[in-house]
Design a protein that fits this description.
The complex is a heterodimer of chains A (180) and B (554). Chain A has one domain: Rossmann fold. Chain A has six helices and seven strands; from the N terminus they run βααβββαβααββα. The mean pLDDT of chain A is 94. Chain B is of the alpha/beta class and 554 residues long. Chain B has five domains: 72 residues, Ubiquitin-like (UB roll), CATH 3.10.20.740; 117 residues, Alpha-Beta Plaits; 54 residues, Single Sheet (N-terminal domain of TfIIb); 150 residues, Rossmann fold; 100 residues, Rossmann fold (3-Layer(aba) Sandwich). Chain B is built from twelve helices and 27 strands. The longest helix of chain B has 17 residues. Chain B starts with a strand and ends in a 24-residue tail after the last strand. The chains are: A alpha/beta (180), B alpha/beta (554). At the A-B interface, helix 4 of A face helix 3 of B.
Chain lengths: 180, 554
């Protein structure tokens, strides 16, 4: 049996889309039975997927240089990229900050918040640097399939993976396609 | 009169009527063409370009192109689909059309189009421009970030409602909806009729009161008549059974008397009930007021019923009046006058054909607002003149009008001569005015009485009489302290605390507005129906079934 290797990551997201992924429940076992193999995902806690992974799934928008790097790396290592959920597909709720500069944002978040006393924006070099604007994944790398929804229904994720495993082009229609 | 002709629609010969656009013809034959700026109650504008069709090799907007004999129309082709998809992408990415935190998600025409086209991502950069949010209005929030510039609100404000408040400013993608000469909506000449909100296809105009109070699938819509004034506009009441509340009220585009037009009172004030609701029956003993059971209060009332006189106001429905007539034969009167200074001779629809309006001491922007819209539209189009008798200067201040004192009007009655279809509107008339109008042949009249079901009172033969006697029973929602003196034993059936309930020996809480089924008559004498949308907050008296042998639980 041919295996279909998938990897996933979440960037600027809430993990809700991965919850939806797990919400496939026993259908996940069914997909594994059909050859699906999880490589590096937040669920398996492996970080770097092997080169030649078949499907890379990205949750969340691209908001920092770390996300940018991660997304580009995944693109390099995967044959197909699936943008999962509104943030990855459209930019999502984080794009609300696009109407402000990064300086305004950090000032509001870490200094002038009503509940903050003597606050300063964090400066640790380990943290990703905020990009000037939050981007949808397709503004950074080529995306092959989109599954919108906040979160996307487990049925939609199952439909896309099942179609891809069985060698067909997935198409989201009806209840499988929604934006909220 | 030009008659039917045929056009070819997707290779099939179909019938078309003169005055029909290509979109009209397609829809009348069940052929779907996507559209966004088009609205059935509004004049087409052709601004969204989603409804494009191919005609003679050209791509044209079907909503603004009149159907012509022999046209060959294609409504769906790869070329059209590509054109529509680009338009849809541009609309979605021009501003913030991110659905997740939008109030109208699930009830949005733009979102529906996204689903129809299977749009699963954006192909243009988004969130490039930030637009303002206008939160200045009492009832309406205008978020320009959600606006698609379809212009429905502007058309509804001007062409439908006659208010001409909304317009556009700036150009291109920077265009914004603006009020008056670009002042915040809340400080503009907006009269809060809410037509803009009702026609908005997206979440640009939302109602603060109804926002996030229930999604489309949670809402039950009940069609009825508004009971806030005697015009009786046909409305769709959106109730949420889960929260037992009325969420919002929309006008019904297809039904008389006002065909979707509404006013501030009907659309908004009926949801903001400022009165203090009564939920307990009360009994006054000396200076103490005791909460008592509803049964007990009704027993106290029943024991004294045949010793006194009953009075009602015009807020009661016909069924309630009928029941009270049975309970008080010959002893039932109206608190407020039921006979007009002069009876009406015109219908509301006649306002649309009038060439002269004479308004006596009325401000139709603040009362009977839907009729105000009919008058304003007619005057603004130049089809009718407007005479305001004893009106304050703010009344209809943007309209050309002759503003006369009563005396000046009586001296210039000849102005009525030139009019072919003059209509006078009044609530009360002075003796001289009455005499002048009565004699005028051909002058049509509409009496705008203060209470909703005054015509019902008259039809049930309930005459006006001042409150007299030692034992008095009052029924209604409009009770005023001045209605009643100090009778020795006063029983008051009302939904609200008011000046009268403070005097009453027994107070019985009753059902109100959205809790009652029933019928009433509007000022034209049309029978209107009301239906219960919410259940009452406590066991309350239903006057229509008062002391009836088999009381129904509600």
């Amino acid at each position: 049996m041919k295996t279909v290797k998938i990897a996933s990551t979440w960037c600027e997201g809430c993990s809700g889309c991965h919850m939806s992924f797990l919400d496939m429940d026993e259908r996940l076992v069914e997909l594994i039975g059909k050859g699906l193999e999880l490589t590096a995902t937040p669920i398996t806690d492996l970080k770097i997927p092997p080169l030649g992974t078949d499907i890379g799934i990205i949750e969340g928008s691209v908001a920092t240089d770390h996300h940018e790097e991660e997304v580009k790396e995944l693109r390099k290592r995967c044959k197909l990229i699936v943008a999962l959920g509104d943030c990855a597909v459209f930019g999502g709720i984080h794009t609300m900050r696009n109407y402000f500069t990064v300086e305004e944002l950090l000032e509001r978040g870490y200094v002038s918040t009503e509940s903050t006393v003597n606050g300063t924006p964090p400066t640790s070099p380990e943290l990703g640097k905020l990009l000037p604007k939050v981007l949808a994944v397709n503004e950074v790398v080529k995306v092959d399939f989109y599954i919108p929804g906040c979160p996307p229904p487990a049925d939609a994720i199952y439909h896309v993976l099942n179609e891809l495993i069985e060698g067909r082009m997935p198409k989201l229609e009806g209840k499988l396609l929604h934006y909220d | 009169m030009d008659s039917k002709f045929t056009i070819t629609l997707n290779g099939k010969e179909v019938e078309a009527l003169p005055d029909q656009t290509i979109l009209d013809v397609a829809r009348s034959h069940g052929v779907h063409i996507p559209a966004l700026c088009n609205h059935k109650a509004l004049v087409p504008r052709g601004s969204c370009r989603l409804c494009v069709v191919e005609e003679g090799g050209r791509v044209r907007a079907s909503c603004t192109t009149p159907a012509e004999r022999g046209m060959k129309i294609v409504t769906d082709s790869p070329r059209l689909r590509a054109a529509r998809e680009v338009v849809l992408q541009l609309i979605f990415t021009g501003r913030n059309h991110y659905c997740m935190y939008c109030e109208v998600s699930g009830n949005c025409e733009l979102q529906d189009l996204g689903y129809e086209f299977g749009m699963d991502h954006f192909t243009f950069p988004t969130y490039e421009n930030r637009f303002p949010v206008d939160n200045s209005h009492e009832f309406i929030l205008l978020d320009h970030n959600r606006c698609v510039l379809c212009g429905r609100c502007i058309r509804a404000c001007a062409d439908l409602a006659g208010h001409n408040v909304l317009t556009e400013k700036s150009r291109g993608y920077r265009t914004l909806i603006a009020a008056d000469l670009d002042i915040p909506l809340g400080f503009s000449s907006c009269v809060s009729c809410g037509s803009c909100v009702q026609v908005c296809p997206t979440g640009a105009f939302i109602e603060k009161r109804s926002a996030y109070q229930g999604k489309k699938e949670q809402i039950k819509i009940v069609r009825m008549a508004c009971d806030m004034c005697p015009v009786g506009c046909a409305v769709d009441v959106h109730g949420n059974p889960e929260t037992n509340s009325v969420v919002k009220i929309h006008g019904d585009w297809d039904a008389p008397p006002t065909f979707g037009l509404m006013c501030r009172t009907g659309r908004y004030l009926s949801l903001f009930d400022g009165h203090t609701r009564l939920t307990n029956a009360k009994f006054r003993q000396d200076s103490k007021v005791l909460d008592i059971a509803l049964e007990g209060a009704l027993n106290l009332f029943a024991a004294r019923m045949d010793q006194g006189t009953a009075y009602v106001d015009g807020s009661l429905y016909n069924e309630e009046l009928a029941r009270l007539k049975e309970l008080f034969p010959g002893q039932l009167f109206s608190l407020h006058p039921v006979t007009p200074p002069l009876p009406s001779t015109a219908r509301i629809r006649d306002l649309g054909e009038a060439d002269l309006f004479v308004l006596f001491r009325l401000d139709l922007d603040r009362e009977y607002g839907a009729l105000g819209s009919l008058v304003k539209k007619r005057v603004r189009s130049g089809a009718a003149r407007l005479v305001l008798v004893d009106g304050s200067p703010e009344v209809f201040e943007k309209l050309p009008a002759e503003r006369l004192s009563s005396k000046a009007f009586l001296a210039r009655l000849d102005m009525l001569e030139g009019a072919a279809a003059a209509v006078a509107l009044y609530r009360d008339l002075g003796d001289k005015e009455k005499e002048a109008l009565e004699k005028r042949e051909g002058l049509r009249r509409i009496w705008l009485h203060g209470e909703t079901n005054t015509v019902g009172l008259a039809r049930y033969g309930i005459e006006h009489a001042p409150v007299k006697g030692d034992t008095v029973f009052l029924f209604g929602g409009n009770l005023r302290e001045s209605d009643v003196g100090n009778p020795a034993f006063l029983v008051c059936f009302t939904p609200y605390e008011n000046g009268v309930t403070k005097k009453a020996a027994v107070v019985v809480p009753t059902l109100k507005g959205f809790e009652k089924n029933g019928t009433l008559f509007n000022l034209e004498g049309e029978l209107l129906t009301r239906a219960a949308v919410v259940t009452p907050p406590a066991p309350l008296a239903d006057i229509a079934k008062l002391l009836s042998p088999t009381p129904e639980k509600r």
